[in-house]
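Tokens in:
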């Protein structure tokens, strides 16, 4: 019997050794990228003195002055940009809510799990977990837009259905648990997501006490994560990249634009209606005179035909973008006097021009691949994907080259 146990032990040891990647001479052990998103974390929140853990990670790692989101500056388009390296106009997640003539009858919206799970919405981009899966690297996601969908034939190796009720401590424990798996089964690319900074930014505005409280809650979760990594001696192997998708601007009921004063609903259909922007579909009844009145700079907003949206927004070519697009000036909100508001206008929102500093997001990187102590000028969030591809060894060749904007973040 003891013999049997010994041979079982030896077999297990051999199996374990077989899955440990043999480091080449002098080569560092294989690294894992842990991508953390703090939804709606505006760039300057980091200077409020409320996030000691994040500030320490930034001080011991690299921090960008700001990370510029892609347009439109909302959650799903930007999360998908972060993991694909493509602009929303290219990857096709052009809004949190949208329709597509090629997917008749369905409306893409955050609350409709069934529609969100249809790959046709997502196939315009290849998220990094799909590329990793094709290369045989294990991946795991604790929430990320698109992570619940089979995209180009792949899902993350481990994923969870989005559950905004899951306590932060449990989210962090779950991720640490994945890292306790035997070598070879440990994910090499992981995501972790926190929403409360965004939620409170909407409710009370970016300067509300509730946002500050949420910053503390997220920072405590990051503290738990950092401690958990150190206790496992994983801090030498994990490259942490902590980002946000966009910032937050204060709104007020004194800065409202009534849609019904400039849109005649008998000749246009309102395709998208959100606080910062509205998209319209004209009917055949829409006259040239109406177009001339609509398509111009107004006092607090501007409307364009989609093909005339300013080039800096890199938006308007995708078939899912409706023909007419109106964007409010920062801090101004569209409303409609003909329908009751579900939420107060005073608080905060995002979705504004990428040139608005209030839309700027967060970028902090910390770990063995990064310089210890450094800062980067502001850069565009499309550059995070090629950086991660490089860290995972997926970025060889010209296409995967690390952009100059983020290259200085790397340790020499
Ligand atoms: P936004 O309307 O752009 O502010 O979107 C933020 C909201 O997106 C958050 O409050 C989350 O509840 C929601 N959200 C974030 N990730 C997901 C996801 N993976 N699935 C569904 N909803 C999500
Ligand atoms: Zn968001
Ligand atoms: Zn939001």
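Residues out:
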């Amino acid at each position: 019997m003891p013999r049997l146990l010994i041979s079982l032990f030896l077999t297990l040891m051999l199996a374990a050794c077989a899955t440990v990647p043999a480091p080449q001479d002098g080569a560092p052990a294989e690294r894992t990228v842990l991508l953390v998103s703090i939804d709606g974390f505006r760039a300057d929140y980091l200077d409020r003195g409320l996030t000691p853990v994040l500030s320490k990670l930034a001080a011991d790692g690299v921090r960008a002055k700001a990370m510029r989101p892609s347009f439109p500056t909302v959650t799903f388009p930007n999360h998908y940009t972060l993991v694909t390296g493509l602009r929303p106009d290219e990857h096709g997640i052009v809004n949190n809510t949208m329709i597509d003539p090629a997917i008749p009858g369905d409306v893409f919206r955050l609350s409709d799990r069934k529609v969100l799970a249809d790959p046709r919405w997502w196939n315009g981009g290849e998220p990094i977990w799909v590329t990793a899966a094709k290369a045989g690297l294990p991946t795991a996601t604790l929430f990320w837009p698109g992570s619940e969908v089979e995209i180009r034939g792949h899902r993350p190796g481990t994923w969870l259905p989005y559950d905004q009720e899951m306590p932060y401590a449990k989210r962090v424990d779950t991720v640490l648990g994945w890292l306790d798996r035997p070598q070879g089964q440990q994910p090499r690319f992981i995501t972790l997501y926190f929403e409360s900074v965004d939620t409170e930014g909407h409710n009370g505005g970016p300067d509300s006490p509730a946002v500050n409280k949420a910053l503390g809650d997220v920072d405590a979760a990051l503290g738990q994560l950092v401690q958990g990594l150190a206790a496992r001696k994983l801090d030498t192997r994990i490259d942490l990249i902590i980002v946000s998708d966009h910032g937050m601007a204060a709104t007020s009921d004194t800065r409202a634009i009534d849609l019904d004063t400039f849109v005649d609903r008998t000749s246009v259909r309102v395709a998208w209606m959100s606080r910062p922007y509205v998209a319209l579909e004209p009917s055949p009844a829409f006259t040239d005179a109406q177009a001339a009145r609509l398509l111009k700079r107004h006092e607090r907003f501007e409307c364009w035909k989609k093909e005339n949206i300013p080039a800096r927004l890199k938006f308007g070519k995708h078939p899912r973008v409706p023909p007419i697009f109106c964007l409010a000036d920062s801090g101004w909100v569209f409303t409609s006097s003909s329908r009751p508001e579900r939420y107060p206008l005073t608080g905060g929102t995002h979705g504004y021009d990428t040139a608005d500093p209030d839309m700027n997001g967060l970028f902090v990187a910390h770990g063995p691949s990064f310089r210890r102590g450094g800062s980067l000028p502001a850069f565009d969030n499309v550059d995070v994907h090629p950086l991660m591809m490089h860290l995972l060894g997926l970025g060889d060749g010209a296409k995967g080259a690390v952009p100059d904007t983020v290259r200085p973040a790397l340790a020499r």
